[in-house]
Amino acid sequence: KMTQQMRDLQLAQARKPPGPSSPNAAKRLYRNLSGKFRVNYTSFDEGSLVGRGEKEKLRKSYLFQSNAALFEAVELQDLDRVQEMLKHYSPEELDLNTPNSEGLLPLDIAIMTNNAPIARALLQAGAKESPHFVSLESRSLHLSTLVREAEQRVNELMAQVVNEAPHADCSEKEKQLKAWEWRFRLYKRMKAGFEHARVPDAPSSVHLSVASSTSLQVTFWEPLSVNSAVVTKYKVEWSCSPTFSPLLGEAVIDKLKDLHFTIQGLVSGTAYHVRVSAYNMKGWGPPQASTPPFAIPSNWREYDGRAPRRRGQAEALDHLLGQVKTVHQHCICHEPCKNQPQSRKHSVSKSLKHLFHPGSKFLKTLKRGLYLTAIFYKDDNILVTHEDQIPVVEIDDTYSCLLMQDFLWLTKVSCMWDEILWLRQCVTVSQSSCSCILQTRFKMLLAISQMQGLLGIQDLGQVFFEPIKDKQGNILIVTLKEVKTNQTFESVRWVPICKLQSGRKSVSSPEEPTALDTLLISLQDKLAYHQRSSHALSPGLYLGYLKLCSAVDQIRVLVPEQLPNILCHVKIRSNPNISREEWEWLQKMASVEEPVPTEPETDRSQNPLFQELQVAIKELMTLVNIPLQEAKDFRLYSQEVLDFGDQVSFLLLLPPSDDVCTAPGQNNPYTPRSGFLTLPLQIFELGEER
Q1: For residue 398, which phi and psi values (nearest 5 degrees)?
Q2: Number of domains in the chain
Q3: In 490-579, where does DSSP find H-type helix?
Q4: Residues 378 and 523 occupy one common structural domain
Q5: Are 211 and 217 in contact (CB under 8 A)?
Q6: What's the chain's average pLDDT?
Q7: Which of 122, 247, 563, 565 could be bridged to 127 by S-S, CB 3.0 to 4.6 A?
């Protein structure tokens, strides 16, 4: 049926007399396209097509009709329809930058009728101006020709309608006359729009910042004037001279979704002046100089020549691990491993067939002891055994008190799931010392191997930051992993979490739930924590708040629930780089022990970083529920900027020395509002590394 509709549409197009369609016909055309035919042409029933030739013909007809519909929507200034078509079709499907028979593009019509909203929508979709307009004279001549030919056609049709007797052909002539009259008015409006337009004003603002030791970031805003034609591109120029002579370089920006540009390949320590100018169909407008008027590419490390903290650390650790393996590779404990190929990889689908074999050692209930459970989830479903149980294995049935050191050791082991067999063999050799700690950790490795073997999956995911304990003496260590594939497995059940929770028949009382009951009750919270732990910050410079609290066996750090792998923070700016000049100012402020900036000062109002810090500190104080007047006792960490890759960096705000870490039993007068939690410091460090 759909194919027949497309054929009928093609026949109707073939019978259509030459000349432009009427506005009503245009409306019917693109409404029909956006309704009935809002499907990709490859989704038609290919069995009903006779050969590739007909399929290609249908494809071309589809693209042609989409392109025509877009032109008609722009001509009728229907913003909603233009946005809808740009949303549902790609630029290629719309033939967005292919001129029509009049040598015009949709963007040309929008800017010459001064329809700024449609022009901006087209520009963001990647629309260009017609390449036929190489100069102002050529554009003016082309518009005059279109107006003259349309006027001539209107006069011819009007004479035919007046002189001919009324009949069927005359009615068709009247329709053509109305269509040409409408197009004649459109062309005159476009010509008038072009003639009355003027070059654009300078960009309203141009901000210059240091992006690195070899680059500068330029951010600019549209001209304020609303009387000139729509701006279609910008030009960024840079020079070492304030007169811009000689000019060192320039870049034309025609993708206007984000008005910023990074100048790369500059010389560190050299001052560069930057200016930006705007362009419309009348030409380039005057340039706007940047604020500040120049900038010097640099980085805070140049202040004292400091090397990156983590440079070479990963390589050094890999080398150290390799040395350890080399020392142990000839141990007798590795004999059982030699028969197993090193590259052995269990496919999830194959191994999970045996996940719930009757001989498996997954547990249904907990006795007094230490256990390991693995949570695999996908969307709102969770992986369970054939008995609707979460996979649980036993670590030690005589272990009723988990030491924090053992738990933190296990969280570090989770960074090398693929090395469990090797670790287990090495710990076996060391067991001759009969150390209780080594025996416990060996049992942990044994339980991990058992879980990996039964699941057929090496990576068990991330260890939840605290084990679950109950009054019956059970301790449950939880690992979490999200399965993002849509693969189906044999003998495996994906059960909705809500169904698993409602179907759980607890043997414990509500007052004393078992560790498994507690796990099911809090499962959504744990999954939310796991998902949030993998979120990354957007590029930028942040102000972080370091607050610790100590217990008998650990130190914990305050973090936001929404992003538990990062300190409490607010964003200072989008540029993550701290320049050498900015770092010198921070060092000077720290050397005289000035309080952190919370109130404006006249002599520093020209320092952008000072102003940005004022705003960020006020926002951060409000976030962690500390009165702003207390900020005078806080200080900025001035030893280094914390770099997390190339795109994210942190400045740290520290409480007074006595309040950085709250001791056990010490009251904290300012407790953060809801939305925060405290993590063991080692867990936080692991999450940060991930």
Answers
A1: -110, 5
A2: 4
A3: 497-503, 515-521, 523-533
A4: yes
A5: yes
A6: 80
A7: 122
